[in-house]
Design brief:
Layout (H helix, E strand, L loop, with lengths): L1 H11 L4 H7 L4 H9 L6 H11 L10 H7 L10 H11 L8 H30 L3 H13 L3 H11 L5
Helix pairs in contact: 1-3, 2-3, 6-7, 6-8, 7-8
Length: 164
């Protein structure tokens, strides 16, 4: 989430936090939490920010160019990208000894298998809780956030080969 926060800070530019939050129709405290990486903006907030800034919603999220080059958008449930990007943000720094480029290459190579597994989890959440897939994707993120780094590494290692 800190990379998303960094991107949002870049977009704010020289405006004060209060000015920009008001322009985006978001509370000052919510925007502060987004920039600090403590919260992710909702899907609706991302759409509104992108629309007001005249940019693509994809450009707000790190790693979206990987989604476009690795997984065809017409056959991919994009909501599975939400927890996959969350995992990238949380576990990327644990990939010690790898350059940022090699981290991105690993995530790009493993993105399809991760999103496939996460898509199944999202489906299970939406079915059991009777909620839409976007809310289910955020529920999966909330569940992942409760887990330790060790548990998350075990999960990712079960789905993809975690680099040494």
């Amino acid at each position: 989430m800190s990379q998303i926060g960094q991107r949002l800070r870049e977009l704010r530019g020289g405006k004060t936090l209060a000015e920009f939050a008001d322009q985006m129709d978001v509370s000052r405290s919510a925007w502060s939490n987004y920039e600090a990486g403590r919260r992710l903006p909702s899907h609706e907030t991302i759409k509104r920010i992108a629309q007001r800034l005249g940019i693509s919603p994809d450009s707000l999220l790190p790693g979206t160019e990987l989604k476009r080059t690795i997984v065809p958008t017409e056959s991919h449930n994009w909501t599975a990208s939400i927890p996959a990007l969350w995992l990238y943000n949380r576990l990327g720094p644990l990939m010690v000894g790898l350059s940022e480029q090699n981290r991105l290459l690993w995530w790009a190579a493993n993105f399809p298998s991760l999103t496939e597994d996460l898509e199944n989890k999202i489906h299970d959440y939406s079915t059991v809780r009777n909620i839409n897939t976007i809310d289910a994707a955020y529920a999966v993120c909330e569940d992942l956030e409760k887990r330790t780094d060790r548990e998350l590494l075990a999960y990712v290692s079960a789905v993809a080969d975690w680099p040494d």
